[in-house]
Amino acid sequence: MSASASAQRTRDLVYCAVSAAIIAVCAWITIPATVPFTMQIFGIFMVLGLLGGRRGTTAILVYLLLGAIGLPVFAGFSGGLGALLGTTGGYLLSYLLVGLLYWFLTARLGTSTPVVAVTMVLGLALCYAFGTAWFMIVYARTSGAVGLVTALGWCVFPFIIPDLVKIAMAIALSRVLRRHVR
To answer: Beta-carbon neighbour count of residue 25 at 10 Å?
Structure first.
């Protein structure tokens, strides 16, 4: 491996590690609720916009693995498999799917602002769908069945406008910072 390739690989690893830490800090900014209001989705989309699909998805995977081994990187300073397998764990796990979707679509359609915006909105819809389905299954096992409209009322409807604002902020910030990331 050449010195420049090694330096690029090291740089990529550092970017992924710092980005995983940024997602964790965003998760710690929380307003408690059935599904907590956090800045986590902002962190996910900002990292994807900043690093691109491959490195961004790697950073998300690192973040999830850090949480899985018990580091308190999730909302409410939680971590461990219990957080990933609990009622809101589907939203956490969906972040990896969101990263893969972003990677796939931007690799094929490019990274123009409209493509990135639509891709992020589709990613948010994927997050809502996977997370809510997971929530309903786990909630039914622990507390009894819950209807789709009730679950959407707890897990999706209150978040739509704030999450769209977070996407807009993530796009704007990642576009400004991307000039400084190789």
So the answer is: 12
Phi and psi (nearest 5°) for 123?
-60, -40
37 strand-pairing partners: 31
pTM above 0.70, yes or no: yes
Cα–Cα dist 23/16, whole Å: 10
Q: Which helix (H) or strand (E) holds 116?
A: helix 113-143
CA 181 to CA 19: how far, in whole Å? 12
Say how many CA atoms lie within 13 Å of 13 toward its Cβ. 6
Tell me the two tokens of residue 84: 């990933």
Sign (positive or negative) of CA dihedral 159, 22, 4, 180: positive
* Rounded distance between C-alpha atoms, residue 163 and residue 100, angstroms: 19
pLDDT at 1 over 80: no
Q: Which residues contact 55 (CB under 8 A, 6 or more apart)?
A: 12, 15, 16, 19
Question: What is the DSSP track for 33-61?
Answer: SSS-EESHHHHHHHHHHHHHHHHHHHHHH
Mean pLDDT over the full length of the chain? 94
Tokens of 83: 């957080």
CB 124 within 8 A of CB 114: no
Q: 37 φ, ψ to 5°?
A: -80, 120
Please tell me the predicted confidence (pLDDT) of residue 154.
93
